[in-house]
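Action item from last week, closing it out:
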Amino acid sequence: MILESLKLKKTVVLYGAGNCAVWCIYVLKREGIEVSFIVDNSIKKQGGDLKGIPIKNHTDSIGLINEMPVLISVADKNANESIRRLLLESGINEGQVLRYQDFREEMVMLYASDYSADMVMDADEKSDRELDRNISVLYDCQLFMLQRHGGISRYLYELITRETDKTNNVEMFQGIHVSEISLEGYKDRFRRYYATKAEDDVFRWSDFLRGINKKLLDVFVSGHEPYDIYHPTYYEDYGINNYRKKVLTVHDLIQEVYNLDKKTIDNKKNSIENSDGIIAVSNSTKRDLIDILAVREEKIRVIYLANSMTLTPTQDQMVDENYILYVGNRGGYKNFATLLDAYSRSSYVGDVALVCFGGEEPNVEEIAQICELGIEDRVFFRRGGDLELANYYNQAEVFIYPSRYEGFGLPVLEAMHYGTPVISSNTSSLPEVAGDAAIMVCPERADEIAYQVDRLLNDESLRRHYAQKGREREKLFSWERCSYETHRFYCELIAG
């Protein structure tokens, strides 16, 4: 972590923090780091104050003024780089010059560890009044056609419903769809057009249906004055052009990493190139965007997801014995075969079952492996809604997530919410999400996974430790913060 290395330097110069300066000072001081001064290029604040902290008008040269934020004016498009150059030319050690965006996510997490998400926003949002505006936002129907429910569906529900609290001009075209996400309660709060539920799954892959929805969407937006923001829900080009800025959320680069679907890869690449701003749901996804697709870093904003699974469990235990839980799809990179191998090696295989919730029915390969390992009476496949899932999380002894690749990994936070100790892969975004609140394992090592399963099952105090750490970790992620940062990103793009 950047902050860990900074603690050795004791004093830093922070630039690019702007309106977040006050809570930056608070967090850095709390971590034992003194801020010599803060620089920014906001001319409007020259000679004023920031939350009661005086700001000195200092535009000609840089003086090291202890404990006082200083703003300098840099009149060019690459203000942050110019500020950094001026700082270094003034003789300040390069290791002490810190750009806010380089450790923004760490700052948010550290602040949120002591204060609620609302208080983080209070320090950030109330000093960003110049960004407050009643912008118009359009969301299209793509994901609603493809997914009945799932992580991206949850994200869209949380984002769209909260955006209606920030602006009166949210419009969502749901079209002919299969989605199960419930937005009916918001129909009077934003404009919805031609929302018709299709029960047959064949509609999800129908080119004919996509063609109808495209025409209906064209009717929906025709004659409308340009939207401030167009935020497509997936990667296909729907030919919409009456917008000021386009924002795209990239949840992962699974197709690119595993070369899964050329059409999706091509659509995603084109959509990214034609977007003004990219939301990455983790720093891992951001790195992949830069390394794999050569996306410019300044175009990307990392905005974390959060947990929506907060239903209170209401049923008695749904399995007649203690069990380990796995949740989600099981194919390919999800690494389910290694999980089965690891489970079969556990010394508790005869005493603790393996429950697999969600996904498709077990396929021929999975059944064959289960029989070959001799665990056919120990592995159970279950499906159901959120209430059933909440009960399975709540009653599990251990939750295992052995995926080789995740853009975020929502099930990790879901399990943590219910106090279920988590064993997770140490790859992609998962260490970023889990932090030190889970036991991290190499997803390719069945013996290592089995060892950690036995270690947890054999030690009740260790399970309590990770249960508590997990509950604390899950609270650091909030949909309120996700919504606020997304809206702020919209406003920053419009402000130019």
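Closing note: Confidence is low (pLDDT under 50) at residues 43-76, 111-130.
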